[in-house]
Amino acid sequence: MDDTDTELNSSELGTHTYWQQAYIKEISNFEENGDPGDVWFGEDSAYRVVDWLRRNVEDKNTAVIDLGCGNGYTLSELAREGFTNLLGVDYCEEAVILAEKVSKREFPVIRFKVFDITRDDLSSLGPFGVVHDKGTYDAISLHPEDAKGHREKYIEQVAAMLDETGIFVITSCNWTEEELIKHFSEKFKLKCVIPTPQFKFGGKVGSMVSSVVFVKK
Questions:
Q1: Residue 64: which of 198, 159, 166 has the closest Cα?
Q2: Least packed by Cβ within 10 Å: which of 10, 39, 184, 217?
Q3: Contact of 89 with 117, CB cutoff 8 Å
Q4: Residue 152: CB partners within 8 Å, gap ≥ 6?
Q5: Sheet holding 210-216: strands in order across?
Q6: What is the DSSP track for 39-107?
Q7: What is the three-class DSSP state of 194?
Q8: What residues of the chain score a pLDDT lower than 50?
């Protein structure tokens, strides 16, 4: 990767402690009020990806992994669309506990596992026909210690878990389409960009989030 890449400023959003505390609260809220918790970037952002996958993945038994699954919302929506081979992973055990609680009644087909993509061995996972990420690469990029090293490990792991004809779908609010394409260019090539709402500021047009689909080189 190019050493001149700009890094994001570190943030508590890049720490395990932040997410652990957040999901402890969300588990309590779900148990007390039935609130499944927040959806990263909002439900509209998630469903744009779900709709794209529904229209572009013919075999609904294709193995799908959601990296940083949070409360499992994206996987639940994929299950609602007929997908049957679904695995959600998160490095925060509390997120996995919440996702299992939220999904088990309506979508028991979804599996969840505690897994840290920057540290853990992939031998028990994959290969997958679809690897999905909404916000996890962002959080890794905010890590207070060696964010670049963590990003590079993430890219290596994603390439290893994706089968040769599979697709990698990533949504980011911190990196532009151009930056994502650059970051992943060593191992992936662009398949397409999923359109997202745009805004205009100072005469320039941009997007709140970027959703990009890659395939292996």
A1: 166
A2: 217
A3: yes
A4: 1
A5: 111-114, 86-90, 64-67, 128-134, 162-172, 210-216, 188-194
A6: -TT-HHHHHHHHHHHHHH---TTS-EEEET-TTSHHHHHHHHTT---EEEEES-HHHHHHHHHHHTTT-
A7: strand
A8: 1-4, 200-201, 205-206
pLDDT digits (tens, 9 = 90+) for 92-101: 999 999 999 9
C-beta of residue 212 within 8 angstroms of C-beta of residue 189:
no
pLDDT at 2: 44
Cα radius of gyration (the chain): 17
In the numeric block, the tokens 């969840």 are attached to 112
Cα 195 to chain centroid, rounded: 17
At residue 53, φ and ψ (nearest 5 deg) are -65, -40
Question: Tokens 């890219």, residue?
Answer: 155
Q: For residue 81, which of 105, 58, 98 has the smallest C-alpha distance?
A: 58
**Percent helix, strand and coil across the chain, each rounded to 5?**
40, 25, 35
Residues β-bridged to residue 128: 162
Give the residue among 7, 4, 26, 12 at the shortest CA–CA distance from 73.
Answer: 26
Domains in the chain and their CATH numbers? 12-216 (3.40.50.150)
pLDDT for the residue 1: 44
